[in-house]
Amino acid sequence: MTPAASTQFTAGAALLRRALASHLVVCSARVHRGWPSEALGADVAAEVVRESGTRACVLHVPSHDDLDSGDAVPYDQQRCWFPGGHPVTFFNTSGAVSGADCAATVRLLHQWASAQPQLAEQYLFKLEVFDASLHSCDAAIIDAVELLDPDLRSLCVPIIEPVRESAERLLELGVAGLRLRAGEIRRGTGILLEAECRHTIEAIDGRVQVMLEGGLAGVDDIRRAAAMGADAVLFNTAVAVHPDPVLFAKQLRSAADRYWR
Predict the structure, then answer these.
(1) Of 6, 19, 90, 205, which has the most beta carbons under 10 Å away?
(2) How far apart are CA 58 and CA 124, in angstroms?
(3) What tens digit of pLDDT does each residue of 81-129 get?
(4) Spatial distance between the Cα atoms of 251 and 258, rounded to a whole number of angstroms
(5) Does the residue 261 lie in any domain?
(6) What is the pLDDT of residues 75-86, one digit of tens each?
């Protein structure tokens, strides 16, 4: 690894560590025109952010056109929800359909974000390529990372199936951290792949930060994630569809504080 790449890797990993310091990431807001109708309105989303203590702002960018049109950019609004106004921004590539598409999206996002002074280089890339069942296409994710220069690889936090081989290859490529799919995305199943996640986390052995996501449904998922050695959890749909998202955010915060003390 070149000195420049090593510096970038350290910066990306440190940025992720800061983003996951609260052990809880909550996606709470509509951030482009095509986002599902159950996404929270701005007032509720702001309360959810404050009560959950999340330090990361997840922005979904499903197509290049959204950057050009400005439909993916309520940054000023979102930043004011966070104490101090300086969250770590995760750019989401969930609209990507292949490794090449994912890599191209990352390059475009990086070019765009570099010109946004309000981001202050406090951003990472939340790499995602899913199949029709919303399972991670690990081969496509690995292809995407391989297509990127080392400085961009070091800012990537891809989601994969909890498979040791995929994790090892991505660590070899120098990603900032990993996310493991623990359940069925958007279905509120709770953690279904506990043994697989545990074995993968054990293989990673603290080399990078690991976050569990996908179908997480309640506080017991936080308990289980902490027990198996994950560094953080991400909640999305469960918050959006909850009858009282703010109360739910408080419960999640309390559980994270209890199980990661």
Answers:
(1) 19
(2) 10
(3) 666 657 888 988 878 899 999 999 899 889 888 887 777 788 999 999 9
(4) 11
(5) no
(6) 444 555 666 657
Q: Of 240, 233, 237, whose CA–CA distance to 213 is shortest?
A: 233
Instruction: Give 207's contacts (C-beta < 8 A, 6+ positions apart).
Output: 171
CA 150/CA 196 separation, integer angstroms:
29
DSSP class per residue in 196-258? HHHHHHHHHTTSSEEEEESS--SHHHHHHHHHTT-SEEEE-HHHHH-SSHHHHHHHHHHHHHH
Provide the β-strand partners of residue 124: 90
pTM here is 0.89
Q: Tell me, yes or no, whether 70 lies in a domain.
A: yes
- Residue 202's domain spans which residues? 3-185+193-256
Count of C-beta atoms within a 10 Å radius of residue 91: 24
Rounded distance between C-alpha atoms, residue 53 and residue 27, angstroms: 12
